[in-house]
Amino acid sequence: MPTRILPAGADPDAVRSLVTLLSQLPDAEPQPPVADSTQLVDTLARLAAESVDELPEVVVVHELIGPVPALELIREVALRFPAVGVILVTTDASPGLFSAAMDAGARGLVALPLSYDELASRVQAVAQWSTGVRRHLGHGAEVFGGAGGTVVTVSGAKGGVGATLVAIQLALAAQASGRPTALVDLDLQAGDIASYLDVQFRRSVADLATITDLSPRVLADAVFRHDTGVALLLAPAEGERGEDVTERAARQLLGALRSRYEVVVVDCGAQLGAASAAAVELADTALLVATPDVIAVRAAKRTVRMWDRLQIRKAEETTVVVNRHTRTTEIQPALVQRITGTALARTAVPAHFKELQAVVDAGRLHELDSRSTVKQALWALAGELGLAKAPEASGSSHRGSGRGSVGFRRRKEV
Questions:
Q1: 227-244: pLDDT as tens digits
Q2: In terms of Cα–Cα distance, which of 221, 298, 219 is closest to 259?
């Protein structure tokens, strides 16, 4: 059976040379090359959606591929498509890079300029490994090799608008629908998820920041399994440790989580840092929570403009959720949408703090009564986002215009 090989690189001349050499290998079947990291992951996801057997046995990644650096891309491919063997082509064949590539999940490294014998030997070894993995998985075994779980970020237009409440209830709704769910607190200096859920924890997201190889075991050791079944990865108890969580660490962490959970909900707080910016950029859906008052709406508009200036996310790819909504307030959701230029969640969360006060004070937000109009609205929002089965429509929902649809799939721009 021919070995399917998918070349990936941004340099046309280097890729052309690679394809020419691959074509000369015995029983090799080079696929049309891909030019960047986004195209590679999308191609593998499309093939995996049909069947794991449709995936190429070998992916050859050139060191100059972008926009995601080669080692980070290899780690993402290894996490999402474990039956695919990855070879890194590089000018630096030092032991240090070899070790880093192996830690990232590569199955081999080939030095430039390319040598036929070296390339043939490495491709053959990796192809045999890939075939063995697929045989070991057995008939009908499922490999989570699709596009990965859904990542939803929840940010506050300003402090105190209820972003953490929204994030927690979305995660609870998704988990209750039978979808394995992780809830991440990236409000690194002021995260309150642990307090809202009455959790005592030892490890936090900061403990993973310096780990280059987030294996399933390492990730499992850092995650706190809540009584509800939601996997919690919490902000550090010492706020200053939040500085350890860099943009790169956040990207690696979210990549690892989305490969293991169907839904990943991230509480980003109201302050923009490197980690939360990376999360918002990577998210499939980015929510911005605002209350229907002038100060919060101005803050929401300011946040949306800042995200756009920093090329984190465009306004039309951001969804505003209006919290503490009443029909009598002067500022209604449709006005918030017009001012911010964003999409609008059809479900608005009503202003009924009395329903929340007892469980908030007790740190038992997960025990909020199902009859609560706030909970009903937030679980309806989860259904609207595709995270959970939508409940019956109730009077607590606000129906906006068709332009307020949600669930954008973020694509990298090259």
A1: 999 999 999 988 898 888
A2: 219
In the predicted model, is pLDDT for residue 152 greater than 50? yes
Long-range contacts of residues 373-380, Cβ cutoff 8 Å, at least 24 apart: 374/165, 374/349, 374/350, 375/169, 377/347, 377/348, 377/349, 377/350, 378/165, 378/166, 378/169, 378/170, 378/173, 378/347, 378/349, 379/169, 379/173, 380/347
Write b or e for each residue in 342-379: b if 16 or more Cβ atoms lie within 10 A of its Cβ, otherwise e: bbbbbbbbbbbeebbeebbeeeebbebeeebbbbbbbb
Sign of CA dihedral 252, 253, 259, 264: negative
* Cα–Cα distance for residue pair 214/222, rounded to 1 Å: 10
**Backbone CA torsion sign across 308, 313, 317, 319:** negative
Cis omega (within 30 of 0) for bond into 113: yes
Contact 347, 395 (CB under 8 A): no
- Taken in order 396, 284, 184, 295, is the CA torsion positive or negative? negative
Model's pTM, two decimal places?
Answer: 0.63
105 Cβ neighbours under 8 A, 6+ residues apart: 74, 75, 77, 78, 79, 86
